[in-house]
């Protein structure tokens, strides 16, 4: 069971905790987004080869 399923199950059991579950989902999505950015953009930017131009 993943985090989204756990939050949904928690909501179905305790509907008054919807705001808490929503915040957990937002945090989880934020973390996943940051991991995606780091993996696909920051890591790849380090593969550029910079050299000094000598004339």
Strand and helix order: HH
Alpha carbon gap, first and last residue: 61 Å
How much helix, percentage-wise, in residues? over 70%
Main β-sheet description? none
Number of strands: 0
Helices and strands: which structural class? mainly alpha
Q: Would you tell me the overall average pLDDT? A: 76
Query: How much β-strand is present in the residues?
Result: under 5%
Which spans of ≥5 residues are poorly predicted at pLDDT below 50?
A: none
The number of helical runs is 2
Which radius of gyration do the C-alpha atoms yield? Answer: 20 Å
Give the CA-based shape: rod-shaped
Characterise this structure.
By secondary structure, the chain is mainly alpha-helical. The protein contains 2 helices and no strands. It starts with a helix and ends in a 10-residue tail after the last helix.
